[in-house]
Design goal:
Oligomer: single chain
Number of strands: 8
Number of helices: 15
Strand order of the largest sheet: 2-1-7
Shape: globular
Largest sheet: 3 strands, antiparallel
Distance between the termini: 65 Å
Structural class: mainly alpha
């Protein structure tokens, strides 16, 4: 396999078209053959999105260290790499890009896709190299370096791009896909808090709001898991949230297909499922009013009679009468049941 050819992309719109055609014609198959040879497999195992999420998305830093020492982690990453490229290079997209007429100056769309594919193709080879180095204990055939930590200056520069846009005189054009992980973490948290109307404690004396930790909310949702119809399993939501926290608190970079897979996987959870009755952004979660009421009651009980860790956290809140628990109406698809 020619690694330089695999990564190289000629400049401009036509260079990308040629790369897309090459990848679909032979490039991806070349990668498959090389990966199967390195993994000593005859074919890749079939895995659905939930299985891939569980195998490539770590919940904690220790979980990540454990995954790095397993063969299945690198195999699943290669599967996701291949699936992601095939998903992006749909026939509809390739044709749409083929007939696209770029702007005369440096075109942003062409620039973005060139940067994306340069990034993802490198990551695909880098995954194989890490397997060779970490698992097989040998010098990798492909040599390349990736800074494992996202530098804070990159975050600072990209924040300007969010404000001013990618094509402006106030920000750089470079993409920073890792920062999407921070947004994934935030959107999952806000989605769940809004869905079940679970917010936190309001301090009337200081006029400040203190959110309840998500670990507490997850514990309560686990209790009522059988009463809640989520578009994706709660365990996978918790896993994605924990993985996003790793990046948020450490800046640890991620393979780009993990980000793309997570966003695709969370789609119905965030935007709602379509049914014969129509669709709504709230319909990614379905439950009944009784369950909502029980969840809120459990929160009030915990607030009034905290135990263990929560006793230390909430004891001051209970002692001081100017604290109150903040809840609201749920943003979910409600079934009609009697409230108990």
């Amino acid at each position: 396999m020619n690694y330089a050819q695999f990564i190289q992309i000629e400049d401009g719109h036509q260079g990308l078209i040629d790369k897309f055609d090459w990848l679909k014609a032979s490039g991806i198959e070349d990668y498959k053959r090389k990966a199967l040879d390195i993994f000593n497999l005859k074919k890749f195992p079939k895995k659905n999105d939930s299985q891939l999420i569980q195998q490539i998305i770590p919940r904690t830093p220790k979980d990540f260290e454990k995954k790095e020492l397993t063969k299945s982690y690198y195999i699943s990453n290669s599967i996701c790499f291949i699936d992601t490229i095939n998903w992006i290079l749909s026939a509809e997209f390739v044709e749409q890009f083929r007939v696209y007429v770029p702007e005369e100056n440096k075109d942003t769309i062409v620039f973005n896709y060139a940067d994306l594919f340069q990034h993802i193709l490198f990551e695909g080879l880098y995954n194989l190299a890490r397997y060779e180095a970490i698992i097989l204990k040998r010098k990798p055939e492909f040599t390349g370096y990736k800074n494992p930590i996202h530098h804070s200056i990159e975050m600072h520069l990209f924040a300007k791009q969010i404000v001013f846009g990618q094509s402006s005189f106030h920000a750089f054009r470079d993409r920073e896909p890792d920062l999407a992980v921070s947004i994934i973490r935030q959107m999952v948290e806000i989605r769940l808090r809004n869905a079940f109307g679970i917010y936190g404690l309001y301090n009337r004396k200081q006029d400040i709001f203190e959110p309840l930790p998500m670990s507490l909310i997850f514990d309560i949702l686990k209790k009522y898991k059988d009463k809640i119809d989520l578009s994706i399993p709660l365990e996978d939501i918790i896993r994605i949230y924990g993985w996003a926290n790793i990046y948020l608190h450490s800046g640890l970079r991620n393979e780009i297909w993990k980000i793309i897979l997570s966003l695709r996987y969370l789609d119905t959870f965030m935007t709602g499922k379509k049914t014969q009755a129509g669709s709504s952004v709230d319909w990614g979660i379905e439950t009944d009013q009784s369950t909502i009421k029980n969840i809120h009651n459990d929160l009030h009980k915990l607030f009034n009679n905290p135990k263990g860790f929560w006793k230390r956290l909430l004891s001051f809140a209970k002692k001081e009468k100017f604290y109150e628990l903040v809840t609201s109406n749920p943003q979910v698809k409600l079934n009609k049941t009697n409230v108990v």
